[in-house]
Amino acid sequence: MPTSKRIEEFIRQVETNKHVEAVEAFYTEDASIQENNSTPRIGRAKLVQREREVMKKAKSIYSQCIRPFFEDDNLVIIRWKFRFDWLDGTVTEIEEIAYQRWDQDRIAEEKFFYDPTQLQPK
To answer: pTM of the predicted model, to two decimals?
Structure first.
């Protein structure tokens, strides 16, 4: 079960756009991430690689936790707002809910819920 302090540390890393570092520090080795009902990506190494790929395509990223977050035992729910300014000049804004299952002080499973039409760059 994570402490509120540990969850806040995770949120701070994401909000300062240290997405790769957050995955390295806060996810279990065999963690999974699933977006809506897509096939989950499994394994921290894959998750880190995916974050690096996204970061390379962005000129800038704005990440914000819309508080409060919710925690109950080993389950955490966080509402996020992201803005991606892409290298090609387009912008993507996404608001999503992250549903996380923690194993001690690391995230073992995470599922994102969002409207996929938000992924269309503007």
So the answer is: 0.93
